[in-house]
Specification:
alpha+beta, 2 domains, four-stranded antiparallel β-sheet, four-stranded mixed β-sheet
Length: 281
């Protein structure tokens, strides 16, 4: 067996181990996962967001974008309308399940082990990115979120801060959030010709609103490689008075850049609060 084949064998064995471990862990949480769905919207809108379905991603095959749209269309049917009552956990993979050709999923872009690849069900990170962004604007607690360790493509019509997404890999790289409030939340998802759209609804009005800001964004060179760094902050305000109730650092990103950068580097920026407002539907 060649060294490369040995590495691949051990990689797949490791993936199997992680997936089995997650499956066993979840057996103790079965009663806590959100499963109930509702066709009618809950009465109060908490957050809306949309993202473009087609974006130029480096020199990748445009057909993979079309395949991604097919994959998203299948996955959102498993989540749309889901209720997240108090004490329940929302999990992408518990609802979507394992992607396969048998279920209609197609080859799409994936990011794996520091490289851009293709795989069945690729492109679902666009869904997790949207869900994570909306969840940050609620009082629910994000209990699991992963991010890519590298920046694969230059910005192309980006409306959200760099590094504010969430990666997925069945079933142990998941996006999960826990409803620690007394309010029931609901997720609605749909697609138009151009956008993936989502809304989080609530059973009662919220007293606190949330906004997201990017700070200390910069590109830098270290040991011959280019990196991108920033901080993502969440600010809480009283809805009635507008008074700032607090802020928290939720993400510190430091990722290797995989594409060519201009010389000199783009200038540093300190805040991207305006992008949060600009991302609304």
């Amino acid at each position: 067996m060649r060294l490369s084949e040995m590495h691949l064998f051990f990689y797949h064995m490791r993936v199997f181990q992680f997936r089995l471990q997650r499956h066993l862990q979840d057996l103790f949480l079965l009663s806590r996962f959100a499963e109930e769905r509702r066709e009618e919207n809950l009465p109060f809108i908490v957050k809306r967001h949309q993202s473009l379905l087609r974006r130029r991603l480096g020199d990748s095959d445009p057909q993979l974008q079309e395949n991604k749209i097919v994959n998203l269309g299948i996955a959102i049917q498993k989540i749309d309308g889901i209720l997240i009552p108090p004490g329940k956990i929302f999990s992408v993979w518990r609802l979507v399940g394992k992607t396969s050709k048998r279920k209609g999923y197609m080859e799409g872009l994936t990011l794996s082990r520091g490289e851009v690849k293709t795989g069945v069900g690729g492109g679902l990170c666009q869904l997790s990115n949207l869900l994570y962004w909306m969840a940050l604007h609620t009082p629910m607690k994000v209990v699991e979120r992963h991010h890519h360790s590298f920046d694969p493509f230059p910005d192309e019509r980006r409306v959200l801060p760099f590094g504010s997404g969430a990666s997925l890999f069945y079933n142990y790289v998941d996006l999960r959030f826990l409803n620690t409030t007394e309010t029931t939340f609901q997720i609605r998802l749909w697609m138009t010709d151009k956008h993936l759209k989502g809304t989080i609804y609530a059973s009662q009005p919220l007293e606190i609103s949330y906004s997201i800001q990017e700070r200390k964004h910069r590109f830098l060179k270290k040991e011959g490689k280019n990196y991108r760094e920033n901080e993502i902050w969440r600010i809480a305000r009283d809805k009635r008075s507008g008074k700032k109730m607090g802020e928290e650092l939720i993400i510190h990103n430091f990722a290797e850049v995989k594409y060519e950068l201009p010389d000199p580097f783009p200038p540093e920026s300190d805040s991207m609060g305006a992008r949060d407002a600009g991302a609304r539907m």
